[in-house]
Amino acid sequence: MDRDIHFQFLPFSTSEIETASLPGDHWIAASALQKAIRRCDAQVAERAALALYRWRGPRIWRRLAIVAAEDIGIGSIDAVVEAVAVCTDTAQRSDAADEVRLLLQVVRLLANAAKDRAADFLISAAHHHPSLAEARARLAVMPVADRIAFTADLSNGLHERALATWFATGIGVPDMGRDGKGDLTGLLAMYRGLGVPSQWLQAVRSIVKQTREPLALMLPPLWLAASGSSAGTVECPVPATTYIHDLPLYALDKHTRPGKRAIHQFARENVEVREILSRHVGKGNANAAACMAAFYADGACLARRRIWPGCHEVERLGIEADFSKVGVPEKAIQPLREAFARNLAHLDDVRARQLNAYLETLR
After folding, report:
1. Is the separation of the CB atoms in 52 and 60 below 8 Å?
2. C-alpha–C-alpha distance, residues 263 and 294, integer Å
3. pTM score above 0.85
């Protein structure tokens, strides 16, 4: 059956949405939705979206706006602009049937789009990478206008300008509360003056206003970094998917109850992984390190990716930052990731056991 039309006759009654959606709880649905979009698996993404809609209703639009920024980004600017317009405009969703139809259209759009996770890598590095510690301290005491001016100076490095972009808004900045003093309007006006398209900046504003997530603020500096340079889209291999009760086991990550239990258990059971964690990671960080490695083994995989000059360096620093925050030294990142990749079958076996046990508790 064609993926693009297989829900077109769904009448959207409560019982039929329940039948078409994936099993589990809202955490599992949210995880399956995002990871299926990354893998360009529209069919699983649609079923996960229906499940999440059953649990959260219209709140799912906030989740999709974040996914558009985090996983699509500059990979497909048109897709982000179109998706965010629907996610943030309640007037388009006149009744429940319209809402579900639009939901499936947006999910399919995001699943089929080329991906770029650089915004997530940039914000992670801004938060946690040791090499940016001095820049974080300097920008934290800089006046807002000076942060915007620093951002506008293209002679500064991408990571430093991304950090200044974030700090210029005050949104989620450490030690400033959820919304510290900032100037989002002035910041976006500066980017418009640098040539960033108005529709792109409007999408960024809409995501930030709806979600209060600083990750979306990484999109303007990324547009500048990638614009005017050679870029292309490549198809990437992803690990094979194992299904239990129609649910892809990659959905069982650290944000789900059975996933977290499975990863912790796997890290104890698997000799190779256990030895690496014991050698390089303190006991207090072993579980968090295992969860991060599991994410990169099969949760962060992109099936269709935009490649642009500088993207691999952004990815490298973002990954280093992610592992640094859970206590994994740089020299152990690659061995740990490779060990998880080699042992995904074992991890899936543990996940299957945990999922079966968990679904029994929901009956």
Report:
1. yes
2. 7
3. yes
